Amino acid sequence: MRRLSLSSRLALLFAACTAVVSLFAGVLFSRASEAHFIELDQQLLDGKLIGLRRALQDVQPAQREARLADELSRQADLALRITGSDGQRWYDSSTQIPTELPKQSGLSTISHDGADYRVLNAPLYPDKSDTPQLTLLLDITHHQHFLQRMQHLIWLTVGLSALATALLGAWAARSGLRPLRRMSAVARGISAQSLNARLPEAQMPPELAEMAHSFNAMLGRLDDSFQRLSAFSADIAHELRTPLSNLLTHTQVTLTRPRPLEDYREALHSNLEELQWMAQLVNDMLYLAKADHGLLMPKREVLELADESDVLLEFFAPLAEDAGVTLSRQGHARIKGDSSMLRRALSNLLDNALRFTPVAGSVRLSIVDQPHAVQVSVENSGEEISAELLPRLFDRFYRADPARQEGSSEHAGLGLAITQSIVRAHGGQIRCESAAGWTRFVIELPKEA
């Protein structure tokens, strides 16, 4: 079965609520009217009972019937039956009085031959035990007809109200849900070429403004991710084009004519360098792909970060000496992590710092043991990085220098992306700060990673 639309559901809900409220109000009004009529009938019969008792008091038996007829003539819809204490019928004011009447004292209601009566049983002399019984019958057929007409009117009102509310509810729901249809239209029109479409948040009702904001934020993230993916694909092609072109050119030139064995050996060595560079690039990309899918599972072993850092500083010491750069380390802390992965991350940062530190500059590695985390920072003196470039430093294949450098895997633009993946795999965060002639990469790792 086809599911009901939201507008139809709201319209039916409005109609049901209106019908229930109308029916409840109608039943209350009907009960109140019926109780009001009973109260009026009770007062009328009580008044007639007092009058009849007075009419029969101190009256000769021969005059009683005439006195009763005179008293009853003032109320055409009233009838009287008098029954002796022995149950014998003494008097009926009308031949239409039903034979069987209620025996209990007080007020009751009966129906006979299509007519409705209110019946009141009471003793003629309340202060005597052996006394005749007066039975007053009041014809209330017109009251019952009124109540029936009112009940029919109530049902008609309930039906018409429900129908009107359903129609108005459908219109109101359709008008109120127009922003949702607009969102649906925008969603239908979204494609890889139109991710810049946005919903007008200012025109949305307050209930949908937050949803529209979240929808626009989602589109913004998708647009940014798609742009990064497109740039990533272009960067992969760019990085692989040069070594492939070199391999093809070098091989074609080598095969143009017969050459000595040494020339072939030299050509193979040259091609091997290019293939090694391509293999390293592919391995780095596979490493990042594993990180994206949460497949990097670092070991959990206690590490002394000072010792790990000293090993790396000793490795980079010759390079720093050749470049005229001073290396230093301060601080120490222990942490649970993967030694090889953290060494790779710090190695990428140190290599990056050495390449951008001018002669006579400094590269400092600092370890700060905090209550709940360990902060490791690698900073170098030199030219600052503009604030608008800082958020993109960890993008793949991104270089702050627009002049693309090629020829080695260290400069492919994947080092910082790999470092970020390693830090995140350890449950930490990394950021870059650049000010006052220093560029600083800060890693924060939880102690219980």
Short description:
With 449 residues, this protein is an alpha+beta fold.
Secondary structure topology:
Blueprint: H1 6-56, H2 61-72, E1 78-83, E2 89-92, E3 106-112, E4 115-123, E5 133-139, H3 141-176, H4 178-188, H5 206-254, H6 261-292, E6 301-304, H7 305-323, E7 326-330, E8 334-337, H8 339-355, E9 362-369, E10 373-381, H9 415-425, E11 429-435, E12 438-446
Helix pairs in contact: 1-2, 1-3, 5-6, 6-9, 7-8, 8-9
What does this structure look like?
53% of the residues lie in helices and 18% in strands. Strand 1 (78-83) and strand 2 form a beta hairpin. It starts with 5 loop residues before the first helix and ends with a strand. The chain is an alpha+beta fold. The longest helix has 51 residues, at 6-56. It has helices spanning 6-56, 61-72, 141-176, 178-188, 206-254, 261-292, 305-323, 339-355, 415-425; strands at 78-83, 89-92, 106-112, 115-123, 133-139, 301-304, 326-330, 334-337, 362-369, 373-381, 429-435, 438-446.
